[in-house]
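In keeping with the milestone schedule agreed at the kick-off meeting, the structural modelling team has produced records for the first pair of proteins. Each record is given below as a sequence line and a structure-token line. The laboratory manager (R.T.) confirmed that both were archived under the project's standard naming scheme.
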Amino acid sequence: MEALKLVVIFAVIVFILRLRKPLPVAVTGGIIATCILYGLGFTESVTIIAQSLTSWSTLSLLLIFYLIMFLQRMLEKRGSLMQAKDALDGLCGNRRVNTALAPMF
């Protein structure tokens, strides 16, 4: 039953995106669908959202993403990212294998 609820929530997000609405609107629609399907009241929903936005795990994840983007831009400016790609291409000529191997390095 839980999997069906998740499929419905995903379908709501995809449907809103198909209407050519921006991603934040689609995610908001998914949040509303989640609250309805799981029977959450308004105050309970606001409390859960506030706790998830201010929790350390959320903030640390955002910090990690920002650090990765910062490092990526630094490497792009120096041309190191293209050198790494070319080195991976030399290792194996298959782009799919390179895509799978890249996170290891």
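The second protein of the pair:
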Amino acid sequence: MVKIVLSTDINSWYLKEIGMFFKRSQTYSYKQTSKIIKKSLGISYKELLIISPNELEKIAQSIDENKPANFEEDKKVLIDVYEKFRNSVSSKRYINKVNLKVCPYCNRNYIFNFTKNKKEEATAQLDHFIDKSKYPYLSLSLYNLVPSCSVCNQRKSAQNIFEKPILNPFEDNIHNHISFKSSEIPSRDELKNKNLDFFSEERTKITIDVNTDNERVEEHLETFNIKGLYNHHTDVVADLYKKRIIYSDEYIDELLTKYGEIFQSREELIGLITCGYMNEEELNQRPLSKLIKDISEELGLR
């Protein structure tokens, strides 16, 4: 659900990291792999490694139209190269370089690296946006490697994105296309009514409004079961109801005045209250931030 915004130096960094990966490899060389790419696709390996998402899709479609003669032999080598990359320090460095804390497909699970016994490990899995089994030539292309949680990686699996197109997190942000809603958001005055059963399952049920005609959005929601998974987070909605009762606009203003030296803005204070982020650019910092932001805004917590 989060668009992956890469640093400006990512292309040159990735090429160097791939070079280091091959130098450490005892099985394959960069030169050997480059020959396979050049012979089968007619482009340099260097170009293929950092080619744009749109161009990657064009290359994949060209493979469908004219499969290379040595496809099966190439596939064995290239998949093995990728498997060695996945288990190498280079893949951990790549995940760290992307600087995502939350899965870009679902915004529900943390995916940051951690250190164990002085060794860097990753909680993220690398999903190939364009399936590596069908398009092995793209298995190490930078803009085909999406760090994701294990749940989303398994759900997407080898899905053919040309038959069932979803949003590419390197190009789009599903947050721009949907809004989370609660079935029935009452006013703060209603919430304060002690006889109001506003924590009922029906009242806190989560729905998703699709506010775009982008055909990939519905398929994205279906592929990652976003609607089904998010309806297990009604407790988050109920907690936001409680917080809205406690934090009136006047109380928020009072806190901002009293602790102005702590908070840079009202938005930052609201983030503390809701345990989320109100800024679109920060939604990849904490799970469920998009849900929290949308429901908070519905409740007037802004």
